[in-house]
Amino acid sequence: MSKIALIQLISDQAMPNLLPILALTPARLLHLTSERTVPRAARIVEAAAKAGILTPHETIRLGRMPSIAETQREVGRAAEVAGRDGLRPVLNFTGGTKLMSIGAHAAARAGGFPSFYVDTAEHFFEDGCTAPGLLDLFDGDLSFARLTGRLNLDVIVVANGHRAISAGKDWRPLVPAARWLLEHPEEEELIHAGIHGRHGLCPNGAEPRTAAGWVKLLDAAFDLPPALGAALAALGMVRFDSSGRGALPDRTRAELHALDTGERLPAFRERYFAAVSPFQEIIGFLSGGWWELILADAAYRSGRFADLRWSAHVIQQSGSSLEEDLVGLDGVEAACISCKRGRGRQRLLVHLEEFQ
């Protein structure tokens, strides 16, 4: 098979430009952009490199509002240069504006080289019918089947402009406890009240704001059914006090006492977060976070999702991060599942604003 020069129109959607690179592993990339989509072209190249495809690339910057004629001319030139260098041009006209797509398709037809459209909904590379030979370039299969194993969440988040995504946490050890809470709704309600109720550990969700406040909370107890308590105690998430009631683990008690001396200690914020995070995790789990584990387990067992991650952090270019309850690979797209607890007149629609 001859070496390929992949010519692509770049728009705001990343996947139609990334998938052909993963499928064809071209010898050269030529990205045609408008003024607005130059950064997107760079992200596509970064994502391809993340997937292990290091390809020489060139960005051809068109005018602010590329016309049919301008796009046709630049695509034709790119294909001509590729041909002179011994490469076989092939066009992906999925991106860009409609006028750019028309011009690019016309250039492929006039130049006699193959073209295609990326149908992400149907998981198919559609032949643009500008020249024969496209099926041979895809080794006889225009479906996305060849992409299995080449795509993961690390690649997708980079293509969409983020720095990285963390590996997340292992949900499997917590599934038995989560299932117990699912199957005992009345007990789950009592546990929730014992944590967030009026006389609970954290009334109305108000957690302590100081190290001393957390130390005080370590000495508070709440009702915990024996079967659930035993499962959580085995994981080090709870302990039992002298009366047999449940209590938060106290393995960071000494650190909290040390932090109570003041905020001028070296690395105070980092140490404080490390000391209280075990408590926040168990409180979150017992007050609704268990539902995330139920869905994680169901999503995993369904066989539909690949690269499934629980409590993963998507790291922005600025360095800040956003935690996702559950994220996985659904075909060639990232699927995000967010879990919220509400009751009575509480409105959950506001949480939809979290989805970007």
Describe the structure.
The protein is of the alpha/beta class and 356 residues long. The protein has two domains: 4-151, 3-Layer(aba) Sandwich (Rossmann fold); 172-354, no CATH class. The protein has twelve helices and twelve strands. It has a six-stranded mixed sheet, sandwiched between helices.
Question: Which keywords apply here?
Answer:
356 residues, alpha/beta, Rossmann fold, 2 domains, 4-stranded antiparallel beta sheet, 12 strands
What's this entry about, in short?
By secondary structure, this protein is α/β, with parallel strands linked by helices.
Helices and strands in order, then pairings?
Layout: E1 4-9, H1 15-24, E2 28-33, H2 38-50, E3 57-61, H3 68-84, E4 88-92, H4 98-111, E5 115-119, E6 124-127, H5 134-137, H6 153-159, E7 164-165, H7 175-183, H8 185-196, H9 211-218, H10 226-234, E8 239-240, E9 246-247, H11 253-259, H12 268-302, E10 306-315, E11 321-330, E12 333-337
Parallel strand pairs: 1-2, 1-4, 2-3, 4-5
Antiparallel strand pairs: 5-6, 7-10, 8-9, 10-11, 11-12
* Global structural class: alpha/beta
- The count of strands amounts to 12
What is the typical, i.e. mean, pLDDT? 91
DSSP summary: helix tally = 12
* Percentage of residues in helical conformation: 40-55%
Could you tell me the radius of gyration in angstroms?
27 Å
Main beta-sheet strand count, sense and barrel state: 6 strands, mixed
The strand line-up of the biggest sheet is 3-2-1-4-5-6
Please, how many domains? 2
Strand content: 15-25%
H and E order: EHEHEHEHEEHHEHHHHEEHHEEE
Low-confidence stretches: none
